[in-house]
Amino acid sequence: MAKYIVTGSAGFIGFHLCLRLLKEGHRVIGIDNMTSYYDVRMKEKRNELLLSYPSFQFEQIDFGNFDSLFQLINASKPKVIIHLGAQAGVRYSLENPWAYEQSNNLGTLNIFEAAKRSGVQNVLFASSSSVYGANTKTPFSEEDPVTQPISLYAATKRANELLAYTYHHLYGMQTAGFRFFTVYGIYGRPDMALFKFAKNMLLGKEITVYNNGDMKRDFTFVDDIVDGLVRAISAIEKGKIKYEIYNLGGDSPVKLLDFIAELEKTLNCKAKMKFLPLQMGDVQETVADVSKARAQLGFDPKTRIPEGIKIFSEWFLENKDWLLELDDPKQ
What we know:
The protein is α/β, with parallel strands linked by helices and about 325 residues long. Helix content is about 45%, strand content about 15%.
C-alpha cells in the first residue's frame, strides 16, 4: 500500500483521484484550504465521502503557508505528491489576480521546495489547456509554443511548468504536468459550464452562451482524467518520467450548442439561451492532441459526450435538492 499526498483533495479532480486511490487500497493524505471561491458545501460533501475511508487523512492547510506544508510533507514522506490544488477559473482571474499569484505561483513553489527539503523526488502537478492561449493551430500539441497566455490564470499555469523544470534540472526531481481540457462529471465545479447550465435549466433561468454559441471544446470526463493521472503515478514510481508535459483531453471536441442539446435531452428540459460575445481571456476552440499521453502512459479516453452527460444528469437529478441550493460562484 503506497502513501500519497494529493493537494486540492476537496476540489473536483482531486476528490475523484483520491477516491480512486483509496478504492485501490492506498493511503492518501489530502490537503485543501476549503476556499470559498465557490460554495464550500460542495467541497464539504466531497470531503465527507473521502473521510468515510479509514485510509484517508485530511489536513486543512493553505499551501501558500510554507511552514505548515513542509511539516506535513517532511513527516509523512509520501511516495508521490500530486499537486492539483489551485485557484481555478479564467474569468475570476480578471477580478482578483492576487488570489492566483498567492495560490498558483507561491503555492506551487512551496510544494516543490517542501518536497525537495523532505527528500520527496516525485511530484505530479496540474497545468491547463489555457496555456495554449489564442493558438489557432489545432489540435494543440505539447510541442506548440506557449509564450502568449491570454489570461492571468494561464500565465500562472505556464509559470508552474517552468518552475517544475527548474526543480528537475537543479535537483533531479521527477515531475510531470498535465494540461487538462474542460473536465466535467459528477461532483463537478459549480463555476463550470455544465453545472451552471444544468442548474439554471432546472430552475427555468437563462443560461449564458458566449461567442453566440460559436465555440468548440474538448470536453473530458473526469474518470478519464483520473485514469491518466493514475497511469502517470505508476510511471513516475517506476522511474519512467523525468520531466514531461502531457495533454489530457477527451480526444473528441464538440460544438457548445451540441453539448447543450445533449444536456437538454438528458435533463428533459429546454434551455433558455442568452447569447453574448466572447469573454476576455476565453478562446473559441480547444482541441487536444493526446498522442504523447497515449504512447507514453497508455492514456485512452473512453467516455463519449452522450454517455458522460447522461451520467452527470442522472447524478444531478438525484441530488438536485441540495445542488440547486448552492450559491453561485464568485465571477
